[in-house]
Amino acid sequence: MKGLEFVFLGIGGILGTFLRYNLLETQILFHFIPVNTLLVNILGSFILGIFIVTSIHYNIDGRYALFVAVGFCWSLTTFSAFALDNSTLLDNNQYGIMFVNVITNVGFAIGALFLGKTIMNTILN
Predict the structure, then answer these.
(1) For the chain, how many structural domains are there in total?
(2) SS3 string of the chain?
(3) pLDDT digit of tens for each residue in the chain (125 aa)?
(4) Quick one: residue 31, left, alpha or beta (phi over 0 = left, psi -120 to 50 = alpha)?
(5) Gyration radius of the chain's alpha carbons
(6) How many CB atoms lie within 10 A of CB 53?
(7) What is the pLDDT of residue 26?
């Protein structure tokens, strides 16, 4: 990795981590489902979907992919927090809630990615 690419990756990572920290700082629960983790995973997936289509349409330099996709989105979304949330639910024998948490995080994150891609495809085409 070249110096400038490392800077793009680092700045994106710092910004994504900062936003994730602020969004996860105070845990919000909805019927015991950790909403904060769900929100950062949906937001990061949505932004990634928008970026994928935009970068292909405008042939954006790969350094910006390091900044947005790898740095920002990957540090904003949080699979480890998702895993910890589910582990806590399992430890508390809340199997149904854990199942709903898994389905909502995975389903909404994938849906948000496709929504972002669809919106940008509609706008750009």
Answers:
(1) 1
(2) CCHHHHHHHHHHHHHHHHHHHHHHCCCCEECCEEHHHHHHHHHHHHHHHHHHHHHHHCCCCHHHHHHHHHHHHHHHCCHHHHHHHHHHHHHCCCHHHHHHHHHHHHHHHHHHHHHHHHHHHHHHC
(3) 688 899 999 999 999 999 999 988 887 777 777 888 899 999 999 999 999 999 999 999 988 998 999 999 999 998 888 999 999 999 999 999 999 999 999 999 999 999 999 999 999 98
(4) left
(5) 16
(6) 19
(7) 80
Q: Distance between CA atoms of 36 and 26, rounded to whole angstroms?
A: 8
Q: Bridge partners of 34?
A: 29
Are 40 and 24 a contacting pair, CB within 8 Å? yes
- In whole angstroms, what is the distance from residue 26 CA to residue 50 CA? 28
Q: Which domain holds residue 50?
A: 3-124
Residue 33: φ, ψ to 5°: -85, 125
Question: Would you state the pLDDT for residue 1?
Answer: 65
Tokens linked to 16: 């994504």
- At residue 115, the pLDDT reads 98
Q: What is the token pair recorded at 39?
A: 């929100």
